[in-house]
Amino acid sequence: MTRLAALAAALALGATAAAAEPLLGTWRTAPDDNGNTGLIQVAPCGDAICGALVRAFGPDGSDIPSPNMGRLIIWDTRPTGGGEYRGRIFAPDRGQEYASRLRLDGDRLSVSGCVIGICREGGVWTRVN
């Protein structure tokens, strides 16, 4: 019975820690090279944080179909301290993966990524919820 209680306590602690993670939630991306934006649902995935595209919008704000719907846009993302996160990010407009750097400041998330020494600013995402 003691092992069962310890397991339950560990699971509850893990759920509390995940709930306290400020990056979790839904974020609206900055416009890409084509003027499109998307909603990224950020959630725990294993020992990291991931975010999948759940909705896409054209430059005029209307819903558009996307072949990337459901695709992970951020993954292997972990906090490094001071509101900063490191991981991987996919840029649908360029079809390119980058090593990511995310900087959280309240309801704003500054996004950038680098591949082979070439870096790209991904703009500022805003929290939707």
Model description:
The chain has 129 residues and is mainly beta. The chain has one domain (23-127): Lipocalin, CATH 2.40.128. 15% of the residues lie in helices and 53% in strands. The protein has an 8-stranded antiparallel β-barrel with strand order 1-2-3-4-5-6-7-8. A hairpin with a 2-residue loop joins strand 4 and strand 5.
How many β-strands, per DSSP? 8
Helix/strand class: mainly beta
CATH architecture: Beta Barrel
Mean pLDDT: 87
- What's the number of helices? 1
Topology:
Blueprint: H1 2-20, E1 25-28, E2 37-45, E3 48-57, E4 72-81, E5 84-91, E6 96-105, E7 108-115, E8 118-127
Antiparallel strand pairs: 1-2, 1-8, 2-3, 3-4, 4-5, 5-6, 6-7, 7-8
Features:
129 residues
Summarize the structure.
With 129 residues, this protein is mainly β. It is built from one helix and eight strands.
